[in-house]
Amino acid sequence: MSYRLSLLDKSPIGKGETAYTALRRTIAYAQQAEALGYTRFWVAEHHNTAELASSSPEILIAALATATSTIRLGSGGVMLQHYSPYKIAENFNLLESLAPGRIDVGIGKAPGGLPLSTRALQAGRDPDRHPDFAQQLREFDAYLGAGSAERVEGLAATPAPHTQSERFLLGASVESAQLAAELGWQFVFARHLNGDDVVLASAISTYRNLVHRTPIVALAAIVDPDGGKARETASGFTPFRVTIPGGQSVTVGSEAQAAEYARQAGAVDYTIEKRKANVLAGDGHDIIAATDRLARQFGIEEFILDLFNPGDSRLVAIGLIASARDAAAAPQALSA
């Protein structure tokens, strides 16, 4: 196999657990990922979600940087629509200064929560003066050092690191691939959110034609030594996409969540679409076989795995995947 494997974590809080326990597990997870040779370890941003402890990726990345030494660390991703591009640039310049050469800036367009948390995060902002996402991203890129055209004259995002963070736009559309290419950013296609491989192929070819690079692909997976058990669990995952006229379409984990999103948005006229689940499931060898197929089909050079395993089983799961990866990469003995 010629592709790299990386990981995304959301710091899930198990039944009866505290956020402290979940976050300590995320740190242990990153340390084990580093020992097993994974390329990156990213943390997500979710709001007003009792089951997840990952509401502020930048703070968690700082903790991970002190607990690891070689693995790249990043956000998967910071939801820029809620924030000042200048402040997020300061945060990542500070992280890059703390851990030079190891920080990935991952930016997403999604809200990372339902409308109640979005309104709270954007409180006090005049919606009529709110820039669109592409404009925000260009401004953010400028404050990271891409140029001065989008900056206020005389204003810099300090501290100025001696090394540059890698920059990634997270998306699930051809339009996101085009925006990433325009800015010279790397692109991550969220196949775990959009399982339409026709769209994936189009996004890959668009990005590759523009910048002569291949996007990273994010995949959901559940892993168990008993592959059948993992497949049975995965069969229960079904994403739903809720679309509100004039608003952003959002993919959530259940039909009830989709309806709640519409309710919080005050929408009466909305649609809910059942989406195809795209969760890789099985033992470690099954996961590597699946990534092998996708790598061959689309020419992918790196996958980011979002494991749906609960609790400490995530640490077991990445060991199973790494063992299968190493076995697949080992030279095969020639028969006599």
UniProtKB/TrEMBL annotation:
Superkingdom of source: Bacteria
UniProt KW keywords: Oxidoreductase
Molecular function GO labels: oxidoreductase activity
Entry's EC annotation: 1.-.-.-
Domain Luciferase-like, chain residue ranges per copy: 13-273
Family membership noted in the UniProt record: To bacterial alkanal monooxygenase alpha and beta chains.
This protein's name: MsnO8 family LLM class oxidoreductase
Source species of the chain: Devosia rhizoryzae
Organism ancestry: Bacteria, Pseudomonadati, Pseudomonadota, Alphaproteobacteria, Hyphomicrobiales
